[in-house]
Structures are given as structure tokens and as C-alpha cells.
Amino acid sequence: MAVINRIAGFADDMTAWRRHLHTHPELGFDCHETAAFVVDRLREFGITEIETGIATSGVVAVIEGRGEGPTIGLRADMDALPIMEATGLDYASATPGRMHACGHDGHTTMLLGAARYLAETRNFAGRVALIFQPAEEGPGGGRVMVEEGILERYGISEVYALHTLPGAAEGSFETCPGPIMAGVDTFHIDVTGLGGHGAMPHETRDPVVAAAGMVQAIQTIVSRNHYALDELVVSVTQIHTGSAENIIPETAYINGTIRSFDPGVQAMVHRRLEEIVAGQAASYGVTAELRIDVGYPATINHPDQTGFAAGIAREVATGGAVVDDRRKEMGAEDFSYMLAERPGAYLFLGQGEAAGLHHPKFDFNDAVAPVGASFFARLVERAQPAA
Fold first, then answer.
1. What is the distance between the alpha carbons of residues 40 and 382, in angstroms, rounded to a whole number?
2. What is the pLDDT of residues 184-241, one digit of tens each?
3. Residue 371: in which H helix or E strand, if any?
């Protein structure tokens, strides 16, 4: 079956939408211009039930089908990243220091394409709730939209989302039942010692040495404190301290990330961090404060819905290429909050050879937008067939 003919017919329009969004990236919850563009397109499609301002700039729009039935939710994220674009494209970001380096411009476009088709045909029962979400890249717009009650308010019974995947075959799909992306926490350690002259270290309590000891000890959490087959990543990503070669500083700062799937493993890491920071601080005669920001939970696909979505993907994938037993990965995604409340599935859509996600030369492949839009549309028609 592959791409739906009607969606293929307005592929050029989708390319124009996507490139407009790419030129005008917005960050975090501040996706107001993107949301206005989305709303204008939805109204052009004849969709009238539209709520704006959810999670600051999110949008939910509803398309009524033919007859009674449940409501299926389809989600796309809208926000960009604080990266200086290096593509040199004629539609590159017009805002220095911001760019769509994770394909959210394409995600929004694919959902708009599905919306246009579904609003024209309405060949399904019940309703479709189109969820355009801000702030996936860190602040957690998915969590806020759930907390603001969109799932209950619109009676959403299932939710689905797509994410572009550079390096996978163009138009292919990948997913798996159960955990597909990790939960993420961030840790911060502030070390305070006693500064002084670099030539007189005996008169100081050196936070640099203490920080180095903490970093070394933190590396043993994965290697010595957890079962090797329970996936876990603990990475120290920042150390900031000092100002000159002859000054022992007063303070040091350590920052890092925790990626896990199991709440028990997560709790163990938190406990060990507390023990390591306290123990190393005592051994070096400094004080240290640990702060852990608990972030997105693991993204966990529901088996029945994942199997169903994979079947739809086989109908529209280029050459029917679908991997339904993809290995889970240590990246994180705030669609996890929606999947924690409703059954559904998260899938990756192959974009072909391209720069990687979050790279300054990344650009979404417009050729796969009709594939993603067809997936969303066919998913609705198969899940909720019209009488």
C-alpha cells in the first residue's frame, strides 16, 4: 500500500510547511509562533475544535469521525534546540543559536499532513486528538500537558508518536514492545573547600582533588554496584573549578547524567551517589552538596498497541521495512508521561543517511514526511474503522 495517494498529492505543501518551521525555530515552552502556524493550517483544513495555550504554547485539536467511538491521540513535538545551525541551506534557521536539529519540524509536519487527510476523509469512527507539544527537549512539555488534563478532558484512550531516525533506511520503521528509551536524571555536586596559594597546599582543603576523587568513585557505580545485564549509564559530563595556575580554588562543581530503565536501579544510583559524595567529602576534609533532578521516566511501549502499530507501519513503510524488536536505547523522551497514563506506542521512522540528531548539520528528510503522515492516518482508520 505504501504512502496514501491523497497524502502524496500534497507532499509539496508538506515540504513548504516543514521548511517554514525549520526557518523559524523556537525553544522550550515558548513555541507560540509555531503553534500559531499549526492552528492556521488546522483551520484551513476545516478543523474547528482547537484548544491553545496548553503547557504555555501547546495545541490540541479534535477531528470528529463518522459515528460513535473512542478517541485516539497522535502526538508531535514542536520545539527546537539551542544549537548554531551549520547546514548552509536556503531555509536554515533565521534565529542564530537555535535550530531544528532533532526533526521536530518534521514531526509537526507529519501530524499536520495526517490532520489534513483525516479532516477531508473522516473515514473513521470516534475522534482523533491531535497533540502538538512544546518543550520536549528538556523542560518536559509532555508532563505538563498530562498534568493539565488533556488525556481526561478529551477522553483519549490510546496515544502514539513518531520520531525521525537518521541512519536507518529511508521510510523504514523501528520499534519494540516494553522499554524503548531510558529514564533520565541529572546530578549536581557542589564541593566547597578552603582555597589558597598553589605553592602552599598544606594550608588549603583542595576541592579539585576532592572532585577528582568523587568522579573516580562515581565510575564504580556501573562497574561494581549493579548487575551487568540491567542497563545503566552514569556519565560525568562537566567539572568546573579554578581560575589560575597558582591558585587553589575554594569550590568545584560536578555535573552528570543517569540513564536507567528500572526504578530499583535508579534508586541504587541515587543512594550510591549520596554515599560517595559524603564519604569522599569527609576523606578530603571538604563539604559537598548533592542535588539530583529526577527527569523523564523510561518510555515504555504497550505490547498490544506496539504490535498493532508495527502492522500499520508494514502497510506504509518503504518496501515494508519494519523492525519490531529494536534494541532499547539510553536516550530519553517525555512522551513517556503519556504512555504512563494511556496505552500506546512510540516508533522511529528512518530518514536515510544524514547527520545525526542534535548535530548542527542535521536536516529532516522531506521525502519521509508523507510516509509518517500515512502511518498516522492509516493507524486511525484501522484502529477505529467507520461503520
1. 28
2. 999 999 999 999 999 999 999 999 999 999 999 999 999 999 999 999 999 999 999 9
3. helix 369-383
What backbone torsions phi and psi does residue 95 show, to the nearest 5 degrees?
-115, 105
Report pTM. 0.94
As given in the structure block, the three cell numbers for residue 385 are 474503522
Query: Cell numbers of 178, please?
Result: 516494553
- Which grid cell sits at 54? 496548553
pLDDT of residue 319: 78
Cell of 169: 533506511
Q: Are 104 and 79 in contact (CB under 8 A)?
A: yes
- Whether 49 and 61 have beta carbons less than 8 Å apart is answered as yes
Q: Rounded CA gap, 314 and 1, in Å?
A: 9
Give dist(CA 120, CA 365) in Å, integer.
Answer: 25
CA 350, chain centre distance (Å): 16
Is residue 280 within 8 A of residue 288, CB to CB? The reply is yes
The whole-number pLDDT of residue 2 equals 85
What is the C-alpha separation between 159 and 172, in angstroms, rounded?
A: 21
Cα dihedral 218→220→221→226 (10° resolution): 180
What is the average per-residue pLDDT within 59-85? Answer: 98
Helical (H) or strand (E) element with 44? helix 32-44
Max CA separation in the chain (angstroms): 84
Q: Which residues are CB-contacts of 349 (< 8 A; sequence separation ≥ 6)?
A: 162, 163, 164, 165, 168, 171, 172, 173, 368, 371, 372, 375
Torsion of CA 166, 171, 175, 181, to 10 degrees: 20
